[in-house]
Amino acid sequence: MSTVSHLKLTVLVEDTKSNGNPYLTAKHGLSLLAEVMRDDLKLKILIDTGPPVDLALKNAYNMGIDLKNLDAIFITHGHYDHVGGLPEILKVNDHPTPVIAHPQIFHPKLMLKSKLRYVGPHFDESALKANGGIPVLSRGPVKIMDGVVTSGEIARETPFEEVSGFWTLKDGMLVEDLMLDDQALYINVEGRGLVVISGCAHAGIVNTIRQAKKMTGLDHIYAIIGGFHLSTSEDERIKKSIDEMEQTDPEAIHPCHCTGLKAIHLLSDRFKSRCRPICTGDTVKL
Q1: Is residue 1 domain-resident?
Q2: What's the count of helices (H) and strands (E) in the chain, helices before strands?
């Protein structure tokens, strides 16, 4: 896999925020701006768009970031807290924008805990197109630039990373949603190694890492960044996930969003200074 020379990630939306900028708002969801350099070529890609409606836009404005010249938008999966801000962001971008995602992001998304509730986007594919989005809906990997590629559907290999609690409709029946639309972004940074960026890792953060190695042929994972979906997990799953991540031996871990406080504390205990949670307004430079 080719390399890029630099990567800068800015957290536009996350569940929490630092005390650095009083004008930023934190809310359950995720939106990351990735600015990638390869020689003199720059790629500006938005990874997820946060919850409805325009929080990512407002936070970007208050950080002095212009979202009018995005090259592409990558949606990790079809839950409202990751895709909700998409129409408003497309409206301000000054050219037709590729929106890279899995074909199932617009399938009905429901959650059943104490009661059934809808957790999908509040718009459909036609609204995406009406606002200047060009759907690039693929089950397989999509190369965005040399050194930057989406995971495509992530193979489910680990016995402990089960998907549960989500539902969808198929052939007129309510069925379990296995979240096949869950994807990640892989970026190979020169002199560092492979960076794995997940939205929620519904497929399992370990499965997501394994997919990265298989797809790219690279064994060294430099950084793991994003939501790891461990906030509601049993202790056994959290421990096994961290054990496997330790075997991968990343040099940096930046958990956030749905990782959960318990898992973040355990990650910090295990990885010490290599683990730094990120929140709204933070940046990561590689």
Answers
A1: no
A2: 7, 17
